[in-house]
Amino acid sequence: MASNETPYGLEPDAAAPGARPLRLAGKASRSGQASTGSGRTEAIDPFVLSEVEGRAASDSAHVPERRCVLTGAHDARDNLIRLAISPDGDLLPDVRAKAPGRGAWIGVNRKTLEAAQAKGKLKGALARSFKGKPLTVPDDLGARIETALERVFLDRLGLESRSGALVLGSDRIEEAARKGRVHLLMHAADGSRKLDQALRVGRDEEGSGLRGVALPVSRTILAMALGRENVVHIALIDRAAAQRVSHALARWRGFIGLDGGAEPRDSSRGLPVSTMTSDADGEASGPNDTDGGDAVGPNDTGGDATGQDRRD
Questions:
Q1: Minimal CA–CA distance to 152: which of 249, 7, 255?
Q2: SS3 84
Q3: Which of 117, 100, 98, 119 is nearest to 108 (CA)?
Q4: DSSP 3-state assignment of 242?
Q5: pLDDT in tens, the chain (312 residues)
Q6: In angstroms, rounded to a whole number, what is the distance separating the alpha carbons of residues 83 and 80?
Q7: Which of 49, 118, 30 is nearest to 269 (CA)?
């Protein structure tokens, strides 16, 4: 077992080179447009288009899928949320899918999950998934999942920061954005959008609605996660890193009910904005708007679960 790994996946995991990004909301054409299925088209970042086209060649590769215990829909397991039972019998989120033992998968947002929980549907679905094994579903399961997904995102930022793919500081980000080097731009929830224009200039999309992604956390949380005094804006200048961060962000935003709808033309366009899905595993299984340089992410102290050998 790696030094940064526990049986429950509580430490930041290394970059997952084989992780498959979430699907685009529509089909991409060679012209750089995405069909939304409602007669509308939306522009796609040229990088995204190349990613979509490049991925077609590898579509034949096997991608593990799971089924959502609530909806019955199937999706790649990387897009879903795994639930597992702890040694004490508590149902806990295993968002890194590393806990041993049997697991159940969900692909719904928090609102839908809590509605199913209130109506007793979740309990019935879990009873089938875990074959009647005694378990306790915490009342705050949705909150625990949200916290765990936030932690995964923040840890991912820390990992990319250490790799040099992440840029902080308004001046540095503006320079990189104007040169077209920024693949993903993000702002703290309480930060300004002043760097969006530089992003549009660098993408040669002045006058468009392109803008950075508003994160559902404050500058204080970002600063703590990255070990900096003040973090308002974050830019990714490496394409692969931007995709990894965007995938973690899409899972988190999707679960809390944002899933891209709040930013119809943001810089994460096509660097996944999610729909989420899952399977009962049949196997036992205030300050100034300035911020600065690169930094290290925190250790993951999260609420993941379980005991026994994992078989899914």
A1: 249
A2: strand
A3: 117
A4: helix
A5: 444 433 333 333 443 444 443 333 334 444 444 444 444 434 444 444 334 344 444 445 788 999 999 999 999 999 999 999 999 999 999 999 999 999 999 999 999 999 999 999 999 999 999 998 999 999 999 999 999 999 999 999 999 999 999 999 999 999 999 999 999 999 999 998 899 999 999 999 988 889 999 999 999 999 999 999 999 999 999 999 999 999 999 999 999 998 644 343 566 655 543 333 333 333 333 334 444 333 333 333 334 443 343 445
A6: 10
A7: 49
**Tokens linked to 48:** 């995204």
Q: Report the distance separating Cα 256 and Cα 114, nearest Å.
A: 11
Please tell me the pTM assigned to this model.
Answer: 0.68
- The CATH class given to the 27-255 domain equals alpha beta
Question: 115-121 long-range CB contacts below 8 Å, 24 or more apart?
Answer: 116/70, 117/141, 117/142, 121/70
Amino acid at 114: E
Q: What are phi and psi of 84, to 5 degrees?
A: -140, 165
**How does DSSP assign 10-68, residue by residue?**
-SPPPP-TTPPPPPPSSEE-TTSEEE-SSS-EEE--HHHHHHHHHHHTTTTS---EEE-
Residue pair 225/298 in contact by the 8 Å Cβ criterion: yes
Contacts of 280 (CB under 8 A, 6+ apart): 67, 69, 104, 105, 125, 128, 129, 130
